[in-house]
């Protein structure tokens, strides 16, 4: 279930908080303000003016590059290589935000950090793109020939491919651009050929005729990951095979495949058909008879308990055929056109389906027809054509020993999967993995390095070997599945099979950050190949899995649904930081992430808040010059915020180490907005106004808090924090600044003192709002603070709550006992007490009526017996709300002046 961030909102209660939009320094006399201290910050934050130049400066200065000769400990993450045909979508933006946050923090912590960029050649997708371009010219790839077509694809790649690189820069991706790789470049091609040769020599790659997923449009085998399943309206036809006592009924959604049936299968223990096992039955519309076989694969409870067996066109039927030595008859060509001799020859599969059902109906062979019959059907993810299972000669990887090694690496703790509950899904996959079909009938891709001789010779050629030549020798025409080369990504990008310095320094990767949707495909293949090629060393220490981005209602984003979002649009409108922060706030491990535009807008407001509050603080003297003053010279407010700051540093570190991006983002949001900007800055104003040594101490503490807070925020919101931090500190770049450390400073007494002070201010603010007082409206008040932890904070309390001195004519018309203090307010002349009592009495009557109605329903046993659970829960919620309203209104009435 999707779980994401609510719209951003600080915890401050309604009423006046910090107003950082009015950027003027605090002075003792607001009528005679001196010129504001200079900052180099514009009055408003404009992301479009900041982000592009900042990113180019980072790249030019080499901040994201990695040095294999460095003595620093390594931290390595590879980018899940996007398709060269692709563009940045929200899923990319989400994943890249998380990886960038991790690498930026580790870089600040002193690690030699490598975020390895690159792109995948995306065999089918890229070939389709270029073929469509050729079609506009009235040509096909066959008009060009293989060599010219591949050259044309390289030309397209150079001119149009890889637009995602520019979009990654827009997002702020801190990748090592000088190390960018492509799965078809020379070095990676050598790696592909090397591992193919080793696997072949170890008899872990072989060629065999098996059932594969075939796309009649793309004319190639495709992998499981390239098959998209959707519910289609089809038909379920039950038809009668044999005659008389030898009649047996089977059902199918693909009637056309009956032309290739070579048996009917039943369960060995099914009493209904025991008399038929071993007999031959007549196959309708043909001159063939086929046997009835007993196989435990058949479910006797499903349908009639008898299934038709078409070994050449169904994977389960193929296995049955293998067990019973049945012939496999291919009845369709690569275009899904019927090739079986007879009246249906030359018809498309769907055309033949209708014709065959009509012919069976005419012979009285149709027992039942159900249409529409909704069932799950596989489609090619590229062209949406219905997949055809097809018996075909292909190249395969024998995955048994490789998959076992991949499972053992997680079981023995060498690799950790996060969140841990995803381990079961991983084991379910690798423990039951079928051999992997790696050949594709394409021209774009890594061509299989196998040559066939004129006398049946088969030679696999390594990267440093010369292929056989002479008359009759030819290379295999197929290319390798894209996942074959991307499975080598963690080490091929570092120079393998050469034993490079980069490989020694940066392998294995520290963590892989990727979606749970490709756990079975890309992740499993990297595990198998990494362990095989790197002498049992897995490709990464941790697999951190995240969910999918969905719309704000939890629905999958899709152009067909009309809810797909181009992240560039939101970055243009709100800034890259706003998008990044929204995505990070929704990133709970392994859980889908809903996102809506209003959430991005809320994050933009947060970026503006950081900007305005930091600028405001700097104009009022916040400084990072010199060491922090001794705590003995600090106020309780100073000690409180430093204590909270260190707690947050420790908290954020723990969340990062546990990949809890949502929690760390939420922690930083509430600390920055609620505690620093809405409380500390406001509470310090009276100190600033008073001047003297206390003011200088608080200005230095404020500078320290901003320095550390901006560093903590930087990995998630890099652009705004870079601009503010460099202006505040004069430092070169926060990208290379030291990551904050928990100094260990805690002051529980100061925290209790300020928490008590906050409760007083919050409660009085709430009362003022309940009474309809404007935030800026001043009210005479008498404060009794003796004996409270916050007795020395009267000036701050009066300033924040707009409370005037009581004066000679003061009359306490409302008294609030809060946290051991007493706040007496003179509301005479500020509100119409009689009108307010009347309004509250009306609200109270409505709440009591609601409570009575809810109690009546919940006390009705007949109603409770019949009502659905969600209806009863709704009424209980209404009752709780009514009781809460009654208590609140009664408290307001009690606080109103008498008379």
TrEMBL record:
<feature type="domain" description="Methionyl/Valyl/Leucyl/Isoleucyl-tRNA synthetase anticodon-binding">
    <location>
        <begin position="638"/>
        <end position="779"/>
    </location>
</feature>
<dbReference type="InterPro" id="IPR009008">
    <property type="entry name" value="Val/Leu/Ile-tRNA-synth_edit"/>
</dbReference>
<keyword id="KW-0547">Nucleotide-binding</keyword>
<dbReference type="GO" id="GO:0004832">
    <property type="term" value="F:valine-tRNA ligase activity"/>
</dbReference>
<feature type="short sequence motif" description="'KMSKS' region">
    <location>
        <begin position="556"/>
        <end position="560"/>
    </location>
</feature>
<feature type="compositionally biased region" description="Polar residues">
    <location>
        <begin position="17"/>
        <end position="33"/>
    </location>
</feature>
<keyword id="KW-0067">ATP-binding</keyword>
<feature type="short sequence motif" description="'HIGH' region">
    <location>
        <begin position="82"/>
        <end position="92"/>
    </location>
</feature>
<protein>
    <recommendedName>
        <fullName>Valine--tRNA ligase</fullName>
        <ecNumber>6.1.1.9</ecNumber>
    </recommendedName>
</protein>
<dbReference type="GO" id="GO:0005829">
    <property type="term" value="C:cytosol"/>
</dbReference>
<dbReference type="Pfam" id="PF08264">
    <property type="entry name" value="Anticodon_1"/>
</dbReference>
<feature type="domain" description="Valyl-tRNA synthetase tRNA-binding arm">
    <location>
        <begin position="832"/>
        <end position="896"/>
    </location>
</feature>
<dbReference type="InterPro" id="IPR002303">
    <property type="entry name" value="Valyl-tRNA_ligase"/>
</dbReference>
<feature type="coiled-coil region">
    <location>
        <begin position="837"/>
        <end position="892"/>
    </location>
</feature>
<dbReference type="GO" id="GO:0005524">
    <property type="term" value="F:ATP binding"/>
</dbReference>
<feature type="region of interest" description="Disordered">
    <location>
        <begin position="1"/>
        <end position="48"/>
    </location>
</feature>
<dbReference type="InterPro" id="IPR013155">
    <property type="entry name" value="M/V/L/I-tRNA-synth_anticd-bd"/>
</dbReference>
<comment type="function">
    <text>Catalyzes the attachment of valine to tRNA(Val). As ValRS can inadvertently accommodate and process structurally similar amino acids such as threonine, to avoid such errors, it has a 'posttransfer' editing activity that hydrolyzes mischarged Thr-tRNA(Val) in a tRNA-dependent manner.</text>
</comment>
<comment type="similarity">
    <text>Belongs to the class-I aminoacyl-tRNA synthetase family. ValS type 1 subfamily.</text>
</comment>
<dbReference type="InterPro" id="IPR014729">
    <property type="entry name" value="Rossmann-like_a/b/a_fold"/>
</dbReference>
<comment type="subunit">
    <text>Monomer.</text>
</comment>
<keyword id="KW-0030">Aminoacyl-tRNA synthetase</keyword>
<dbReference type="GO" id="GO:0006438">
    <property type="term" value="P:valyl-tRNA aminoacylation"/>
</dbReference>
<dbReference type="InterPro" id="IPR037118">
    <property type="entry name" value="Val-tRNA_synth_C_sf"/>
</dbReference>
<dbReference type="Pfam" id="PF10458">
    <property type="entry name" value="Val_tRNA-synt_C"/>
</dbReference>
<keyword id="KW-0436">Ligase</keyword>
<dbReference type="InterPro" id="IPR002300">
    <property type="entry name" value="aa-tRNA-synth_Ia"/>
</dbReference>
<dbReference type="InterPro" id="IPR033705">
    <property type="entry name" value="Anticodon_Ia_Val"/>
</dbReference>
<dbReference type="InterPro" id="IPR009080">
    <property type="entry name" value="tRNAsynth_Ia_anticodon-bd"/>
</dbReference>
<keyword id="KW-0648">Protein biosynthesis</keyword>
<dbReference type="InterPro" id="IPR010978">
    <property type="entry name" value="tRNA-bd_arm"/>
</dbReference>
<dbReference type="Pfam" id="PF00133">
    <property type="entry name" value="tRNA-synt_1"/>
</dbReference>
<feature type="domain" description="Aminoacyl-tRNA synthetase class Ia">
    <location>
        <begin position="54"/>
        <end position="591"/>
    </location>
</feature>
<feature type="binding site">
    <location>
        <position position="559"/>
    </location>
    <ligand>
        <name>ATP</name>
    </ligand>
</feature>
<dbReference type="GO" id="GO:0002161">
    <property type="term" value="F:aminoacyl-tRNA deacylase activity"/>
</dbReference>
<dbReference type="InterPro" id="IPR019499">
    <property type="entry name" value="Val-tRNA_synth_tRNA-bd"/>
</dbReference>
<dbReference type="InterPro" id="IPR001412">
    <property type="entry name" value="aa-tRNA-synth_I_CS"/>
</dbReference>
<keyword id="KW-0963">Cytoplasm</keyword>
<keyword id="KW-0175">Coiled coil</keyword>
């Amino acid at each position: 279930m999707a779980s994401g961030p609510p719209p951003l909102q600080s915890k401050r209660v309604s009423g006046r908080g910090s107003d950082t939009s009015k950027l003027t320094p605090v002075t003792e006399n607001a009528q005679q303000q001196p010129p504001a201290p200079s900052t180099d910050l514009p009055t408003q934050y404009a992301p479009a003016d900041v982000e592009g130049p900042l990113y180019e400066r980072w790249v030019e200065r080499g901040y994201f590059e990695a040095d294999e000769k460095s003595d620093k400990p390594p931290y390595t993450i590879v980018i899940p290589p996007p398709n060269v045909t692709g563009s940045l979508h929200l899923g990319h933006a989400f994943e890249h935000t998380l990886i960038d946050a991790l690498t930026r923090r580790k870089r600040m912590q002193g690690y030699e950090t490598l975020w390895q960029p690159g792109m995948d050649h995306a065999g089918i997708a890229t070939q389709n793109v270029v073929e469509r371009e050729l079609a506009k010219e009235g040509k096909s790839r066959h008009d060009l020939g293989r060599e010219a077509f591949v050259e044309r694809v390289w030309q397209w790649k150079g001119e149009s491919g890889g637009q995602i690189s520019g979009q990654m820069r827009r997002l702020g991706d801190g990748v090592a651009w000088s190390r960018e790789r492509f799965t078809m470049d020379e070095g990676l091609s050598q790696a592909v050929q090397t591992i193919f040769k080793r696997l072949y020599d170890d008899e872990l790659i072989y060629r065999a005729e098996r059932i594969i997923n075939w796309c009649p449009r793309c004319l190639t085998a495709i992998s499981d990951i390239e098959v998209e399943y959707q519910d289609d309206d089809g038909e379920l036809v039950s038809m009668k095979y044999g005659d008389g006592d030898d009649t047996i009924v089977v059902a199918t959604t693909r009637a056309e495949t009956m032309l290739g049936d070579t048996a009917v299968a039943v369960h060995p223990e099914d009493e209904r058909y025991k008399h038929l096992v071993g007999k031959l039955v007549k196959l309708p519309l043909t001159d063939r008879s086929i046997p009835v076989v007993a196989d435990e694969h058949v479910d006797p409870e499903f349908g009639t308990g008898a299934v038709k067996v078409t070994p050449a066109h169904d994977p389960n039927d193929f296995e049955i055929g293998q067990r019973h030595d049945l012939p496999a008859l291919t009845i369709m060509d690569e275009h899904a056109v019927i090739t079986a001799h007879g009246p249906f020859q030359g018809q498309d599969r769907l055309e033949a389906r209708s014709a065959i059902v009509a012919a069976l109906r005419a012979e009285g062979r149709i027992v039942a027809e159900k249409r529409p019959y909704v069932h799950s059907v596989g489609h090619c993810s590229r062209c949406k054509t219905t997949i055809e299972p097809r018996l075909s000669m292909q190249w395969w990887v024998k995955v048994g020993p490789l998959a076992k090694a991949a499972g053992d690496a997680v079981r023995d703790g060498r690799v950790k999967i996060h969140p841990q509950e995803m381990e079961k899904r991983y084991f379910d996959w690798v423990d039951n993995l079928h051999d992997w079909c790696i050949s594709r009938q394409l021209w774009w891709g890594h061509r299989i390095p196998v040559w066939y001789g004129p006398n049946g010779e088969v030679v696999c050629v390594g990267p440093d070997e010369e292929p056989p030549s002479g008359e009759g020798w030819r290379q295999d025409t197929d290319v390798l599945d894209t996942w074959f080369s991307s499975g080598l990504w963690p080490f091929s990008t570092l120079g393998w099979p050469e034993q490079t310095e980069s490989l020694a320094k940066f392998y294995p990767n520290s963590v892989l950050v990727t979606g749970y949707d490709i756990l079975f495909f890309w992740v499993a293949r990297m595990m198998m190949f990494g362990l095989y090629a790197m002498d049992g060393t897995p490709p990464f220490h941790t697999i951190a899995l995240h969910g999918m981005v969905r719309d704000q209602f939890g629905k999958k984003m899709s152009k067909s649904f009309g809810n797909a979002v181009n992240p560039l649009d939101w970055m243009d409108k709100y800034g890259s930081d706003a998008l990044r922060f929204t995505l990070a706030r929704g990133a709970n491990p392994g859980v889908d992430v809903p996102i809506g535009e209003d959430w991005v807008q809320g994050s933009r407001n947060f970026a503006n808040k950081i900007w305005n509050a930091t600028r405001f603080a700097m104009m009022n003297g916040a400084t990072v010059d010199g060491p922090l003053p001794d705590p003995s010279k600090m106020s309780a407010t100073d000690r409180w915020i430093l204590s909270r700051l260190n707690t947050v540093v420790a908290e954020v570190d723990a969340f990062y180490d546990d990949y809890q991006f949502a929690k760390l983002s939420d922690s930083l949001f509430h600390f920055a907005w609620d505690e620093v900007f809405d409380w500390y800055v406001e509470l310090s104003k009276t100190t600033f106004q008073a001047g003297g040594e206390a003011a200088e101490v608080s200005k230095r503490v404020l500078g320290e808090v901003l320095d550390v807070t901006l560093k903590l925020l930087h990995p998630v919101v890099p652009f705004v924090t870079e601009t503010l931090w460099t202006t505040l500190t004069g430092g070169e770049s926060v990208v290379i600044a030291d990551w904050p450390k928990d100094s260990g400073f805690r002051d529980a007494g100061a925290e209790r003192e300020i928490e008590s002070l906050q409760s007083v201010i919050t409660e009085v603010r709430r009362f003022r709002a309940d009474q309809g007082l404007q935030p800026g409206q001043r009210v005479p008040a008498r404060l009794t603070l003796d004996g409270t932890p916050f007795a020395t904070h009267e000036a701050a309390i009066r300033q924040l709550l707009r409370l005037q001195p009581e004066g000679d004519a003061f009359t306490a018309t409302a008294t609030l006992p809060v946290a051991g203090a007493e706040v007496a307010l003179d509301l005479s002349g500020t509100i119409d007490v009689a009108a307010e009592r009347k309004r509250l009495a009306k609200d109270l009557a409505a709440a009591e009526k609601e409570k009575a109605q809810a109690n009546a329903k919940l006390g009705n046993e007949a109603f409770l017996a019949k009502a659905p659970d969600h209806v009863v829960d709704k009424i209980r919620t209404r009752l709780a709300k009514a009781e809460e309203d009654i208590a609140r209104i009664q408290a307001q009435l009690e606080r109103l002046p008498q008379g």
